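Example record

One chain of 232 residues, shown exactly as stored in the release files.
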Amino acid sequence: MVNIISHNNQIQIVTHFNDLVAHTFMGDINAICWKRKLAGDFGEIVKKVKLTGNVTSISLSEIRNLILSENGQIAREILLQDFKLLQDFGAQPTLNVIQYYDKDDTESICSTDVYSFHIDRSPLPVDTFLCTYFGDASEILPNVQSIQKVLIPEIREALKKQCNGSEADFESYLTEHFYDLHYAAKPEAHIVNLGLGNMWRLAVDYPESKVLPCIHRAPEEHSGQYRLLIIC
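Predicted structure tokens for this chain:
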């Protein structure tokens, strides 16, 4: 089941960028949403940028040089403002147009591509910021409604056979191949769609973090539209 930012005790809703970056993750809260309804035609920007692959990073200079309609110009100004807000905060945002991401082989024992629910991990304190402006939006899986894939017996046994090492080797194997970062939804889990225009800050797994990392995934491109996404 997919909800659009319905009541969820792990999500904090705010109304300004300053609140987005100032709020502290604590308790069950590991996702903060600057909820917005944006004006402008972001689809026009997607149509007019030059694509170089399935994921294309767009420079600010290219965005500024696009010849756009009035609604396209409104969308451009929002993108530039968001980019500046994140940069001024100290983040390093990238603006991408995404046709699709590469997928693991369909026979993979435990998928580790971005379409699989996963957490981000870092050796240093950091958060993930993202905003989808056009296309299909990312999704969150509540921690209490998830199970780590490597704890699912049939997956764990298959990975052990694949590793063919000692128990210590196996635990290292799971980390080295990122299997331990990926999760499956429990039956009747309420998946949260992050929506268009909303800017999100998601908790990352790092040493001494006081909250659980936020489990999320890239969406399947069911709409057939390319995605326009800022992420850092």
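Notes: The two ends are 28 Å apart (CA to CA).
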